[in-house]
């Protein structure tokens, strides 16, 4: 019986995040999240780039008003039923690949982030990576309160990417809420 070594070296990218420099942000808190979506990269980029689509899968984004080609005004649900107002400016836009943004001075929270769309090296759709770096209101205490109330951007990013995946792959976002179209009848005893 003969034995021959077969090389397993291949030039393929990993879905794991090993590039530490992409995890570090300029602000007090940072988060990097990823999801694999079974859709072409250009479709995902196009849907996300139309910022008015974001409230369709992001339960914390109440509204987005596009001000011009690079600036938009957002209202986001914050902890304690407090709305957070942001004006974001797109700082980089590479069609089909990447969108980066940062808050302007009039925003309630100082933040920046980016989203990337990469073809999966194994031909299984698109890797979508989102990075957010921000200064929580009220510092560490504000971060803890936001985390407890499930309003911390790290938690929100994970959930919103999951809902984005559902919407892009199935055409809807699954929910356990009763639909408005089928209200529950009152019971009479």
Give a nutshell description of this structure:
The protein has 189 residues and is α+β, with helices and mostly antiparallel strands.
What does this structure look like?
- With 189 residues, the protein is an alpha+beta fold.
- Helices cover 20% and strands 31% of the residues.
- It contains three helices and seven strands, in the order βαββββββαα.
- The chain has helices at residues 41-49, 139-148, 153-170, and strands at residues 29-37, 61-66, 71-77, 83-94, 98-103, 111-119, 126-134.
- A hairpin with a 5-residue loop joins strand 3 and strand 4.
- The longest helix is centred in the C-terminal third of the chain and has 18 residues, at 153-170.
- Residues 1-25 and 138-151 have low confidence and may be disordered.
How are the secondary structure elements laid out?
Elements: E1 29-37, H1 41-49, E2 61-66, E3 71-77, E4 83-94, E5 98-103, E6 111-119, E7 126-134, H2 139-148, H3 153-170
Antiparallel strand pairs: 1-7, 2-3, 3-4, 4-5, 5-6, 6-7
Q: For the record, give the distance between the C-alpha atoms at the N and C termini, rounded to a whole number.
A: 82 Å
Give the helix level as a range of percent: 10-25%
Report the β-strand fraction as a percent range: 25-35%
Question: Count the helices. How many?
Answer: 3
Average pLDDT value? 75
Strand order in space, largest sheet: 1-7-6-5-4-3-2
Structural class: alpha+beta
């Amino acid at each position: 019986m003969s034995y021959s070594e077969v090389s397993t070296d291949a030039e393929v990218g990993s879905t794991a995040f090993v590039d530490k420099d992409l995890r570090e942000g300029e602000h007090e808190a940072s988060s990097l999240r990823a999801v694999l979506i079974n859709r072409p990269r250009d479709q995902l980029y196009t849907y996300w780039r139309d910022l008015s689509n974001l409230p369709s899968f992001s339960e914390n984004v109440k509204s987005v008003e596009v001000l011009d080609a690079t600036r938009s005004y957002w209202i986001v649900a914050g902890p304690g039923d407090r709305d957070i107002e942001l004006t974001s400016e797109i700082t980089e836009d590479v069609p089909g690949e990447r969108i980066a943004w940062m808050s302007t001075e009039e925003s309630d929270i100082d933040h920046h982030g980016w989203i990337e769309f990469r073809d999966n090296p194994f031909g299984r759709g698109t890797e979508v990576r989102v990075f957010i770096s921000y200064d929580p209101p009220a510092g560490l205490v504000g971060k803890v309160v936001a985390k407890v109330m499930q309003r911390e951007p790290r938690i929100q990013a994970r959930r919103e990417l999951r809902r984005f995946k559902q919407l892009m792959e199935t055409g809807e976002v699954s929910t356990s809420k009763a639909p408005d179209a089928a209200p529950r009848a009152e019971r009479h005893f």
